[in-house]
Amino acid sequence: MIPAWLLAKGGGNLRTAGARQCACGATVLAGLDADRAAMNAVVDLAPVDEMGEVIAIAQGRATYDLVGDSRRKELEYRYEWNIRAKRRYPVLVAHKCGAPIPAAPPTEVPDKSPGGFDDDRCPF
Known about the structure:
It is built from 3 helices and 6 strands; from the N terminus they run H-E-E-E-H-E-E-H-E. It has about 120 residues and is of the alpha+beta class. It has a domain at about 10-95. The strands form 2 sheets. The chain has a 3-stranded antiparallel β-sheet, with no helix packed on it. Strand 4 and strand 5 (about 75) form a beta hairpin. The longest helix has 9 residues, at about 50-60. The termini are far apart.
């Protein structure tokens, strides 16, 4: 049974993630990351692709699935078996002030200008 004072503060659903303002000025999403023995998770709002998740893990940052429907969202910590499996939800990265995850590097487009290669020949 959840005490009345706690229900009044949490709105009855303690796992629901909500938008917050970080001290650095960024808007983040914050909430508990599990049903039991939960930690408070604070994540950037922009979902990342597979490369972004690799960069985040290399930086020592946790990643989370954003689970739920249009009315309620929850953060679920991504364990190694979640990371290896096919993605089912948007993946968000733990917030670090002033250090957003960079976008995946753009792929190089062959030069098709006059004098450039416009076929499948190796450019070197």
